[in-house]
Fold:
Amino acid sequence: MNATNRGLNRLFLAITGLLLIAAGAVPLALALVPAVASQWRATAKDLASGAPAWVAQPTTGKASALVLGVAVVAVILVLLLLVFMIRRGGGRTGAAIEHRGESGTTRIDLAVPRSLLEEHLGSRDEFAGVRIASYEVRGTPMLAISARCRRGVSPAAAAELIGRAVTDLERILGTDVPTLVRLSGGFRLGRAPARAV
Amino acid sequence: MSTDTALAKRVVRRELHSSRSGAAVLVALLALIATAWIGTESVLAALGQPALLLTPAAMAAGVRGLATVPAAGLITAGAVLVLLGLVLLVLAFGPGRRGKHVVTGPTPTVADDAVLASSLSRAAADAARLDPDRVVASVGRRTATVRLTPTTGVPVDRGAVQRAVAEQAAALNVQPAVRARVVVDRKGKVS
Structure:
Protein backbone atom coordinates (compact mmCIF):
# COMPACT_ATOMS: atom_id res chain seq x y z
CA MET A 1 0.00 0.00 0.00
CA ASN A 2 2.96 2.30 -0.51
CA ALA A 3 2.90 5.10 -3.03
CA THR A 4 4.82 3.37 -5.84
CA ASN A 5 3.42 4.28 -9.24
CA ARG A 6 2.65 0.80 -10.54
CA GLY A 7 1.25 1.97 -13.87
CA LEU A 8 4.56 3.69 -14.56
CA ASN A 9 6.46 0.48 -13.72
CA ARG A 10 4.39 -1.47 -16.20
CA LEU A 11 4.59 1.26 -18.85
CA PHE A 12 8.38 1.30 -18.51
CA LEU A 13 8.58 -2.49 -18.84
CA ALA A 14 6.30 -2.43 -21.89
CA ILE A 15 8.32 0.30 -23.64
CA THR A 16 11.65 -1.43 -22.95
CA GLY A 17 10.17 -4.74 -24.10
CA LEU A 18 9.00 -3.20 -27.40
CA LEU A 19 12.39 -1.54 -27.91
CA LEU A 20 14.18 -4.86 -27.33
CA ILE A 21 11.87 -6.62 -29.80
CA ALA A 22 12.53 -3.90 -32.37
CA ALA A 23 16.29 -4.17 -31.74
CA GLY A 24 16.10 -7.93 -32.15
CA ALA A 25 14.08 -7.67 -35.35
CA VAL A 26 16.92 -5.82 -37.11
CA PRO A 27 19.53 -8.65 -37.05
CA LEU A 28 16.78 -11.19 -37.73
CA ALA A 29 15.68 -9.29 -40.84
CA LEU A 30 19.31 -8.88 -41.95
CA ALA A 31 19.87 -12.62 -41.69
CA LEU A 32 16.57 -13.80 -43.14
CA VAL A 33 15.53 -11.19 -45.74
CA PRO A 34 18.16 -10.76 -48.52
CA ALA A 35 16.62 -7.50 -49.75
CA VAL A 36 17.06 -5.87 -46.32
CA ALA A 37 20.68 -7.06 -46.14
CA SER A 38 21.62 -5.68 -49.55
CA GLN A 39 19.88 -2.36 -48.83
CA TRP A 40 21.78 -2.18 -45.51
CA ARG A 41 25.09 -2.81 -47.30
CA ALA A 42 24.38 -0.14 -49.92
CA THR A 43 23.42 2.47 -47.31
CA ALA A 44 26.47 1.59 -45.23
CA LYS A 45 28.72 2.13 -48.23
CA ASP A 46 27.14 5.51 -49.00
CA LEU A 47 27.53 6.60 -45.39
CA ALA A 48 31.14 5.45 -45.18
CA SER A 49 32.17 7.39 -48.29
CA GLY A 50 30.12 10.57 -48.03
CA ALA A 51 28.46 11.13 -44.68
CA PRO A 52 26.90 14.54 -43.89
CA ALA A 53 29.12 16.94 -41.97
CA TRP A 54 27.21 16.72 -38.69
CA VAL A 55 27.85 12.97 -38.61
CA ALA A 56 31.45 12.81 -39.81
CA GLN A 57 33.20 16.15 -39.16
CA PRO A 58 34.62 16.54 -35.67
CA THR A 59 33.39 19.74 -34.02
CA THR A 60 35.00 19.25 -30.61
CA GLY A 61 38.03 17.01 -30.23
CA LYS A 62 37.27 13.92 -32.26
CA ALA A 63 33.50 14.10 -31.71
CA SER A 64 31.04 15.16 -34.37
CA ALA A 65 27.78 16.97 -33.68
CA LEU A 66 26.01 13.59 -33.68
CA VAL A 67 28.27 12.22 -30.94
CA LEU A 68 27.75 15.36 -28.84
CA GLY A 69 23.99 14.99 -29.28
CA VAL A 70 24.19 11.38 -28.19
CA ALA A 71 26.13 12.43 -25.08
CA VAL A 72 23.49 15.00 -24.13
CA VAL A 73 20.65 12.53 -24.66
CA ALA A 74 22.53 9.89 -22.62
CA VAL A 75 22.98 12.28 -19.69
CA ILE A 76 19.27 13.18 -19.73
CA LEU A 77 18.28 9.50 -19.92
CA VAL A 78 20.59 8.57 -17.06
CA LEU A 79 19.04 11.27 -14.88
CA LEU A 80 15.49 10.16 -15.78
CA LEU A 81 16.31 6.53 -15.02
CA LEU A 82 17.88 7.50 -11.69
CA VAL A 83 14.77 9.46 -10.70
CA PHE A 84 12.60 6.53 -11.80
CA MET A 85 14.62 4.08 -9.70
CA ILE A 86 14.72 6.22 -6.59
CA ARG A 87 11.06 7.23 -6.58
CA ARG A 88 9.44 4.08 -5.26
CA GLY A 89 8.05 3.06 -1.93
CA GLY A 90 7.15 5.98 0.25
CA GLY A 91 3.73 7.06 1.40
CA ARG A 92 4.33 6.28 5.05
CA THR A 93 3.03 8.86 7.46
CA GLY A 94 3.31 9.40 11.17
CA ALA A 95 -0.39 10.17 11.48
CA ALA A 96 -3.09 7.61 12.08
CA ILE A 97 -6.00 9.97 11.67
CA GLU A 98 -6.28 13.35 10.04
CA HIS A 99 -9.55 15.23 9.93
CA ARG A 100 -9.67 18.55 8.21
CA GLY A 101 -12.55 20.53 9.64
CA GLU A 102 -13.59 24.15 9.28
CA SER A 103 -12.00 25.12 12.55
CA GLY A 104 -8.72 23.31 11.94
CA THR A 105 -7.16 19.91 11.53
CA THR A 106 -7.38 17.11 14.06
CA ARG A 107 -4.48 14.76 13.93
CA ILE A 108 -3.93 11.60 15.94
CA ASP A 109 -0.38 10.37 15.98
CA LEU A 110 0.42 6.82 14.91
CA ALA A 111 1.87 6.18 18.37
CA VAL A 112 -1.66 6.03 19.84
CA PRO A 113 -3.07 3.11 17.82
CA ARG A 114 0.34 1.52 17.79
CA SER A 115 0.64 1.23 21.55
CA LEU A 116 -3.02 0.29 22.01
CA LEU A 117 -3.08 -2.38 19.30
CA GLU A 118 0.38 -3.80 19.80
CA GLU A 119 -0.27 -4.25 23.49
CA HIS A 120 -3.67 -5.78 22.91
CA LEU A 121 -2.81 -8.07 19.98
CA GLY A 122 0.81 -8.80 20.84
CA SER A 123 -0.22 -10.70 23.94
CA ARG A 124 -2.49 -13.07 21.98
CA ASP A 125 -1.27 -16.62 21.42
CA GLU A 126 -2.48 -16.53 17.82
CA PHE A 127 0.20 -14.05 16.76
CA ALA A 128 3.97 -14.23 16.86
CA GLY A 129 4.27 -10.53 16.16
CA VAL A 130 2.18 -7.53 15.20
CA ARG A 131 3.38 -4.42 13.43
CA ILE A 132 1.42 -1.23 12.96
CA ALA A 133 2.22 1.31 10.27
CA SER A 134 0.32 4.08 8.57
CA TYR A 135 0.31 4.97 4.88
CA GLU A 136 -1.19 7.87 3.08
CA VAL A 137 -3.62 6.50 0.49
CA ARG A 138 -5.27 9.09 -1.73
CA GLY A 139 -4.69 11.81 0.81
CA THR A 140 -6.03 10.01 3.87
CA PRO A 141 -3.94 8.07 6.36
CA MET A 142 -4.71 4.38 6.52
CA LEU A 143 -3.58 1.99 9.21
CA ALA A 144 -1.75 -1.17 8.12
CA ILE A 145 -1.81 -3.94 10.71
CA SER A 146 0.60 -6.73 9.77
CA ALA A 147 0.24 -9.82 11.94
CA ARG A 148 2.42 -12.91 11.78
CA CYS A 149 0.14 -15.82 12.58
CA ARG A 150 1.32 -18.88 14.43
CA ARG A 151 0.99 -22.30 12.90
CA GLY A 152 -2.55 -23.46 12.31
CA VAL A 153 -4.34 -20.22 13.15
CA SER A 154 -7.43 -19.70 11.00
CA PRO A 155 -7.21 -16.50 8.96
CA ALA A 156 -10.92 -15.90 9.54
CA ALA A 157 -10.43 -16.06 13.30
CA ALA A 158 -7.35 -13.85 13.10
CA ALA A 159 -9.21 -11.30 10.96
CA GLU A 160 -12.10 -11.23 13.40
CA LEU A 161 -9.78 -10.80 16.37
CA ILE A 162 -8.01 -7.87 14.76
CA GLY A 163 -11.30 -6.43 13.53
CA ARG A 164 -12.61 -6.41 17.09
CA ALA A 165 -9.43 -4.70 18.30
CA VAL A 166 -9.89 -2.03 15.64
CA THR A 167 -13.52 -1.53 16.68
CA ASP A 168 -12.35 -1.06 20.26
CA LEU A 169 -9.76 1.43 19.07
CA GLU A 170 -12.42 3.33 17.16
CA ARG A 171 -14.57 3.47 20.27
CA ILE A 172 -11.67 4.87 22.29
CA LEU A 173 -10.75 7.44 19.65
CA GLY A 174 -14.36 8.25 18.80
CA THR A 175 -13.73 8.19 15.06
CA ASP A 176 -13.44 5.80 12.15
CA VAL A 177 -9.99 4.33 11.55
CA PRO A 178 -9.45 3.14 7.95
CA THR A 179 -7.49 -0.10 8.23
CA LEU A 180 -5.92 -2.83 6.15
CA VAL A 181 -5.01 -6.13 7.83
CA ARG A 182 -2.21 -8.30 6.46
CA LEU A 183 -1.83 -11.84 7.73
CA SER A 184 1.44 -13.66 7.16
CA GLY A 185 3.27 -16.52 8.81
CA GLY A 186 1.80 -19.98 8.99
CA PHE A 187 4.24 -22.82 8.69
CA ARG A 188 7.50 -21.38 9.80
CA LEU A 189 6.20 -20.23 13.16
CA GLY A 190 5.51 -22.92 15.71
CA ARG A 191 2.46 -23.15 17.87
CA ALA A 192 2.24 -20.97 20.93
CA PRO A 193 4.47 -22.23 23.71
CA ALA A 194 2.63 -24.40 26.19
CA ARG A 195 2.02 -22.72 29.49
CA ALA A 196 1.87 -24.34 32.88
CA VAL A 197 -1.41 -23.73 34.64
CA MET B 1 -17.03 -1.39 9.49
CA SER B 2 -15.56 1.97 8.77
CA THR B 3 -13.11 1.78 5.93
CA ASP B 4 -14.29 3.64 2.85
CA THR B 5 -15.06 0.97 0.25
CA ALA B 6 -13.32 2.56 -2.73
CA LEU B 7 -10.21 3.04 -0.64
CA ALA B 8 -10.43 -0.51 0.70
CA LYS B 9 -10.83 -1.93 -2.81
CA ARG B 10 -7.78 -0.05 -3.98
CA VAL B 11 -5.45 -1.16 -1.19
CA VAL B 12 -6.66 -4.76 -1.37
CA ARG B 13 -6.12 -4.84 -5.14
CA ARG B 14 -2.61 -3.45 -4.72
CA GLU B 15 -1.96 -6.00 -2.00
CA LEU B 16 -3.00 -8.91 -4.23
CA HIS B 17 -0.87 -7.93 -7.23
CA SER B 18 2.85 -7.45 -7.63
CA SER B 19 4.02 -3.86 -7.97
CA ARG B 20 6.59 -4.94 -10.60
CA SER B 21 9.07 -2.69 -8.83
CA GLY B 22 11.79 -5.35 -8.77
CA ALA B 23 11.66 -6.00 -12.50
CA ALA B 24 11.35 -2.30 -13.33
CA VAL B 25 14.33 -1.36 -11.15
CA LEU B 26 16.48 -4.15 -12.59
CA VAL B 27 15.67 -3.15 -16.18
CA ALA B 28 16.19 0.51 -15.35
CA LEU B 29 19.57 -0.27 -13.80
CA LEU B 30 20.73 -2.17 -16.90
CA ALA B 31 19.44 0.60 -19.17
CA LEU B 32 21.22 3.13 -16.97
CA ILE B 33 24.53 1.29 -17.23
CA ALA B 34 24.20 1.03 -21.02
CA THR B 35 23.30 4.70 -21.52
CA ALA B 36 25.98 5.83 -19.07
CA TRP B 37 28.55 3.85 -21.03
CA ILE B 38 27.49 5.35 -24.38
CA GLY B 39 27.44 8.82 -22.83
CA THR B 40 30.92 8.35 -21.35
CA GLU B 41 32.37 7.15 -24.65
CA SER B 42 30.86 10.17 -26.41
CA VAL B 43 32.32 12.60 -23.89
CA LEU B 44 35.73 10.88 -24.00
CA ALA B 45 35.70 11.15 -27.78
CA ALA B 46 34.78 14.82 -27.55
CA LEU B 47 37.72 15.41 -25.19
CA GLY B 48 40.04 13.46 -27.48
CA GLN B 49 40.73 10.86 -24.76
CA PRO B 50 41.17 7.12 -25.50
CA ALA B 51 37.94 5.10 -25.35
CA LEU B 52 36.98 2.72 -22.51
CA LEU B 53 35.90 -0.08 -24.86
CA LEU B 54 34.82 1.39 -28.20
CA THR B 55 34.93 4.84 -29.72
CA PRO B 56 31.66 6.19 -31.16
CA ALA B 57 33.24 5.86 -34.62
CA ALA B 58 33.91 2.16 -33.98
CA MET B 59 30.30 1.69 -32.78
CA ALA B 60 29.02 3.29 -35.99
CA ALA B 61 31.33 1.12 -38.09
CA GLY B 62 30.02 -1.94 -36.25
CA VAL B 63 26.42 -1.03 -37.05
CA ARG B 64 27.34 -0.42 -40.72
CA GLY B 65 29.05 -3.79 -40.90
CA LEU B 66 26.10 -5.66 -39.38
CA ALA B 67 25.06 -7.06 -42.76
CA THR B 68 28.39 -8.85 -43.18
CA VAL B 69 28.11 -10.79 -39.91
CA PRO B 70 27.35 -14.54 -40.48
CA ALA B 71 23.62 -15.35 -40.45
CA ALA B 72 23.82 -17.73 -37.48
CA GLY B 73 25.20 -15.00 -35.22
CA LEU B 74 22.58 -12.49 -36.36
CA ILE B 75 19.75 -14.95 -35.79
CA THR B 76 20.98 -15.89 -32.31
CA ALA B 77 21.42 -12.28 -31.24
CA GLY B 78 18.07 -11.25 -32.71
CA ALA B 79 16.22 -14.17 -31.15
CA VAL B 80 17.70 -13.45 -27.70
CA LEU B 81 16.69 -9.79 -27.91
CA VAL B 82 13.15 -10.61 -29.09
CA LEU B 83 12.77 -13.20 -26.32
CA LEU B 84 13.91 -10.73 -23.65
CA GLY B 85 11.46 -8.20 -25.06
CA LEU B 86 8.63 -10.71 -24.87
CA VAL B 87 9.48 -11.49 -21.24
CA LEU B 88 9.25 -7.79 -20.42
CA LEU B 89 5.91 -7.51 -22.25
CA VAL B 90 4.54 -10.44 -20.25
CA LEU B 91 5.72 -8.73 -17.06
CA ALA B 92 4.13 -5.47 -18.21
CA PHE B 93 0.73 -6.90 -19.14
CA GLY B 94 0.48 -10.05 -17.00
CA PRO B 95 -1.67 -9.89 -13.86
CA GLY B 96 1.24 -10.57 -11.51
CA ARG B 97 -0.91 -12.18 -8.86
CA ARG B 98 0.71 -12.86 -5.51
CA GLY B 99 -0.08 -15.91 -3.41
CA LYS B 100 -2.67 -14.19 -1.25
CA HIS B 101 -6.39 -14.34 -0.58
CA VAL B 102 -8.89 -11.79 0.64
CA VAL B 103 -10.55 -12.69 3.93
CA THR B 104 -14.15 -11.49 3.74
CA GLY B 105 -15.28 -9.46 6.68
CA PRO B 106 -15.91 -5.90 7.81
CA THR B 107 -12.19 -5.01 7.96
CA PRO B 108 -10.30 -5.35 4.66
CA THR B 109 -7.96 -8.28 5.27
CA VAL B 110 -5.45 -10.05 3.06
CA ALA B 111 -3.86 -13.35 4.10
CA ASP B 112 -0.80 -15.11 2.65
CA ASP B 113 -1.60 -18.50 1.17
CA ALA B 114 0.81 -20.02 3.72
CA VAL B 115 -1.58 -18.97 6.48
CA LEU B 116 -4.49 -20.76 4.76
CA ALA B 117 -2.34 -23.83 4.16
CA SER B 118 -1.21 -23.95 7.76
CA SER B 119 -4.78 -23.67 8.99
CA LEU B 120 -5.96 -26.48 6.66
CA SER B 121 -3.13 -28.77 7.65
CA ARG B 122 -3.89 -28.23 11.31
CA ALA B 123 -7.50 -29.31 10.74
CA ALA B 124 -6.26 -32.39 8.88
CA ALA B 125 -3.71 -33.26 11.56
CA ASP B 126 -6.30 -32.92 14.31
CA ALA B 127 -8.83 -35.08 12.44
CA ALA B 128 -6.25 -37.76 11.64
CA ARG B 129 -4.64 -37.57 15.12
CA LEU B 130 -1.29 -37.09 13.44
CA ASP B 131 1.69 -34.97 14.37
CA PRO B 132 1.33 -31.61 12.55
CA ASP B 133 4.72 -32.20 10.93
CA ARG B 134 3.22 -35.17 9.06
CA VAL B 135 0.83 -32.95 7.17
CA VAL B 136 1.77 -30.66 4.31
CA ALA B 137 -0.69 -28.38 2.55
CA SER B 138 -0.34 -26.17 -0.48
CA VAL B 139 -2.84 -23.56 -1.53
CA GLY B 140 -3.47 -22.23 -5.03
CA ARG B 141 -5.99 -19.66 -6.13
CA ARG B 142 -9.04 -21.93 -5.99
CA THR B 143 -7.68 -25.29 -4.91
CA ALA B 144 -5.72 -26.67 -2.01
CA THR B 145 -3.98 -30.00 -1.55
CA VAL B 146 -3.46 -31.50 1.88
CA ARG B 147 -1.04 -34.40 2.02
CA LEU B 148 -0.81 -36.72 5.03
CA THR B 149 1.89 -39.25 5.85
CA PRO B 150 0.25 -41.76 8.23
CA THR B 151 2.04 -43.67 10.96
CA THR B 152 2.86 -47.17 9.74
CA GLY B 153 0.19 -49.65 10.85
CA VAL B 154 -2.26 -46.95 11.95
CA PRO B 155 -4.79 -46.35 9.19
CA VAL B 156 -6.06 -42.82 8.59
CA ASP B 157 -9.80 -42.28 8.16
CA ARG B 158 -9.62 -40.42 4.88
CA GLY B 159 -13.33 -39.56 4.86
CA ALA B 160 -13.16 -37.96 8.28
CA VAL B 161 -10.07 -35.97 7.32
CA GLN B 162 -11.72 -34.87 4.08
CA ARG B 163 -14.79 -33.69 6.00
CA ALA B 164 -12.71 -31.81 8.55
CA VAL B 165 -10.61 -30.16 5.87
CA ALA B 166 -13.67 -29.19 3.78
CA GLU B 167 -15.27 -27.69 6.86
CA GLN B 168 -12.13 -25.72 7.65
CA ALA B 169 -11.82 -24.60 4.02
CA ALA B 170 -15.35 -23.21 4.18
CA ALA B 171 -14.60 -21.55 7.51
CA LEU B 172 -11.55 -19.80 6.09
CA ASN B 173 -13.97 -17.29 4.61
CA VAL B 174 -11.65 -16.35 1.77
CA GLN B 175 -12.25 -14.92 -1.68
CA PRO B 176 -11.96 -16.78 -4.05
CA ALA B 177 -13.01 -19.83 -2.04
CA VAL B 178 -10.61 -22.79 -2.06
CA ARG B 179 -11.62 -26.42 -2.54
CA ALA B 180 -9.41 -28.79 -0.65
CA ARG B 181 -8.27 -32.23 -1.76
CA VAL B 182 -6.85 -34.73 0.71
CA VAL B 183 -4.07 -37.13 -0.28
CA VAL B 184 -2.98 -39.89 2.09
CA ASP B 185 0.46 -41.26 1.32
CA ARG B 186 0.43 -44.98 0.52
CA LYS B 187 3.53 -45.59 2.59
CA GLY B 188 3.50 -44.66 6.24
CA LYS B 189 6.35 -43.68 8.49
CA VAL B 190 7.45 -45.18 11.76
CA SER B 191 7.09 -42.47 14.33
